[in-house]
């Protein structure tokens, strides 16, 4: 029994065996330490190595029992198995730890090809070492390979296409692609197929040969997150709106508004694309940063376009048709108009600026108020612009910002529903002191300077009450600006009567 165990141990424990086991154990521990996500793969490779070692011991047992021919075959099979397991760990250690640290990242398919060549070279070398001529195997395998290649043309085409896709870096995991009517993100590139996840969460399997034969569009690269893609928003406007004015209004609102996922550079452009029956067809082209929320971003842009056209008094085109209008319809529209005026007058009663006005004066103002909606982030007016309108905020919230030389823009105050703003410039002729931006989607009514001047001229005494309100706001504004300027050089707050003098001088009272 002792002699048998000695023969088994001598046949199994070769001079290089202990080095192979030590190297494998060290590699496995290092990979478990640095690549915890690959524990399953490392465990499977370790199990293969342990099984190969057990197989070599079984081959040694057969040798001890004088089954020499069978023992050699079993021993070599399991030596090849242990060698392949060791080579696999060496490849993972090199490709996943060493090469990335020096800035080299190979495609997954390239790694697999190198490992396969390594396996082939090791097997041929081992066969040559035990005296088996590999050329006879190669001749036989060549015939088998030719038969298999003829029978698996499509599969081989997909495999070679997958290799080409990754080696030339034309497609990467994480890229956004469009193939015919399919658009989505590449989640995996395998030997045979590429998996694409659509925005609806569907997983679409595309054969690699189809990608190589056809044409696909990459509109978002994983290695270039700041690479925007251009989107098109189409809309129709009636012919009574000048095209240059339509383009100007739309481009301004999209380039200045804070719209999530819309790039400021390159700047958006609006172009007149076509003439239709009763309308001109326009296209707004803007650049989107993240391709995932495409429809929500388009919706936000359309909201701003629609609000800008409404503020400018421009109508979106609708199908034309002839309608016979009866007297009752005219009366109905008049009643709707009166209800709208009554609602505006109720809002005006709540505004401090118009508290001293009579009913007829309030009615005059309400009839001339212009509906002016703004989308979230839109600039209502900017600091330094000439003042043409007084605004009443009916719904939503806006914020007042001020620019100081050499400093970032500062928040002054918030404007809530039921408040007015922009009064000072309309009543004194001064340029805008602040920038007002819609903090939410807001609904405003604006009143032109001519109407304000007409009301004050009819009753000059109103100017005193309005001047007192504007003076109080002027004091708040001066207190705010002193926080960001040199107090020693800032002029003192104006006297209460100075605001009334400015109003009278501007309106010629």
Automatic annotation (TrEMBL):
Pfam families: cNMP_binding, MS_channel_2nd, MS_channel_3rd
GO CC, alphabetical: plasma membrane
GO function terms (MF aspect): mechanosensitive monoatomic ion channel activity
CDD domains in UniProt: CAP_ED
Localization in the cell: Cell inner membrane; Cell membrane
Residue ranges of every copy of the Cyclic nucleotide-binding domain listed in the record: 353-456
Keywords: Cell inner membrane, Cell membrane, Ion channel, Ion transport, Membrane, Transmembrane, Transmembrane helix, Transport
Keyword Iron in annotation: no
Membrane topology annotation: Multi-pass membrane protein
InterPro entries referenced in this protein's UniProt entry, alphabetically: cNMP-bd_dom, cNMP-bd_dom_sf, LSM_dom_sf, MS_channel_C, MscS_archaea/bacteria_type, MscS_beta-dom_sf, MscS_channel_2nd, MscS_channel_C_sf
Positions of transmembrane segments: 19-35, 47-65, 77-97, 109-129
Keyword hit for Ribosomal protein: no
Origin: domain of life: Bacteria
Subunit structure: Homoheptamer.
Family, as annotated: Belongs to the MscS (TC 1.A.23) family.
Record function comment: Mechanosensitive channel that participates in the regulation of osmotic pressure changes within the cell, opening in response to stretch forces in the membrane lipid bilayer, without the need for other proteins. Contributes to normal resistance to hypoosmotic shock. Forms an ion channel of 1.0 nanosiemens conductance with a slight preference for anions.
Protein name: Small-conductance mechanosensitive channel
Source species: Candidatus Accumulibacter aalborgensis
């Amino acid at each position: 029994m002792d002699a048998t165990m000695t023969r088994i141990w001598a046949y199994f424990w070769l001079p290089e065996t202990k080095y192979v086991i030590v190297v494998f154990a060290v590699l496995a521990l290092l990979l478990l330490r640095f690549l915890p996500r690959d524990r399953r793969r490392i465990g499977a490779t370790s199990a293969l190595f342990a099984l190969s070692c057990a197989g070599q011991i079984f081959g040694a047992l057969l040798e001890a029992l004088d089954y020499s021919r069978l023992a050699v075959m079993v021993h070599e099979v399991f030596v090849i198995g242990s060698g392949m397991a060791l080579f696999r760990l060496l490849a993972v250690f090199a490709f996943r730890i060493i090469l990335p640290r020096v800035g080299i990242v190979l495609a997954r398919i390239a790694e697999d090809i190198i490992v396969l060549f390594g396996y082939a070279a090791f097997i041929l070398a081992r066969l040559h070492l035990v005296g088996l001529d590999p050329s006879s195997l190669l001749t036989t395998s060549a015939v088998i390979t030719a038969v298999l290649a003829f029978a698996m043309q499509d599969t081989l085409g997909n495999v070679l296409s997958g290799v080409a896709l990754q080696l030339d870096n034309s497609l990467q995991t994480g890229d956004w692609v469009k193939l015919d009517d399919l658009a989505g993100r590449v989640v995996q590139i395998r030997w045979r197929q590429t998996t694409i996840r659509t925005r609806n969460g569907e997983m679409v399997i595309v054969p690699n040969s189809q990608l190589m034969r056809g044409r696909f569009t990459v509109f978002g690269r994983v290695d270039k997150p700041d690479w925007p893609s251009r989107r098109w928003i189409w809309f129709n406007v009636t012919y009574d709106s000048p095209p240059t004015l339509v383009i100007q209004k739309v481009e301004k609102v999209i380039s200045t508004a804070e719209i999530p996922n819309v790039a400021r550079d390159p700047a958006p452009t609006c172009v007149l694309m076509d003439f239709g029956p009763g309308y001109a067809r326009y296209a707004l082209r803007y650049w989107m940063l993240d391709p995932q929320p495409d429809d929500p971003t388009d919706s936000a842009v359309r909201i701003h376009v629609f609000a800008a056209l409404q503020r400018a008094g421009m109508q979106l085109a609708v199908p034309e048709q002839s309608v016979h209008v009866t007297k009752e319809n005219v009366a109905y529209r008049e009643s709707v108009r009166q209800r709208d005026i009554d609602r505006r007058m109720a809002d005006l009663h709540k505004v401090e600026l118009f508290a001293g006005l009579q009913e007829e004066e309030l009615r005059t103002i309400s009839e001339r108020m212009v509906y002016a909606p703004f989308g979230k982030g839109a600039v209502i007016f900017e600091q330094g612009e000439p003042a043409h309108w007084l605004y009443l905020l009916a719904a939503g919230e806006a914020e007042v910002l001020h620019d100081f030389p050499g400093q970032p823009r500062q928040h002054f105050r918030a404007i809530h529903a039921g408040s007015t703003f922009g009064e000072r410039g309309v009543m004194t002729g001064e340029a805008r002191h602040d920038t007002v931006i819609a903090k939410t989607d807001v609904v405003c009514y604006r009143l032109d300077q001519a109407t304000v001047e007409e009301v004050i001229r009819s009753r000059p005494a109103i100017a005193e009450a309005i001047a007192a309100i504007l003076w109080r706001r002027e004091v708040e504004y001066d207190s705010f600006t002193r926080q960001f300027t040199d107090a020693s050089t800032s002029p003192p707050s104006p006297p209460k009567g100075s605001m009334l003098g400015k109003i009278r001088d501007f309106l010629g009272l």
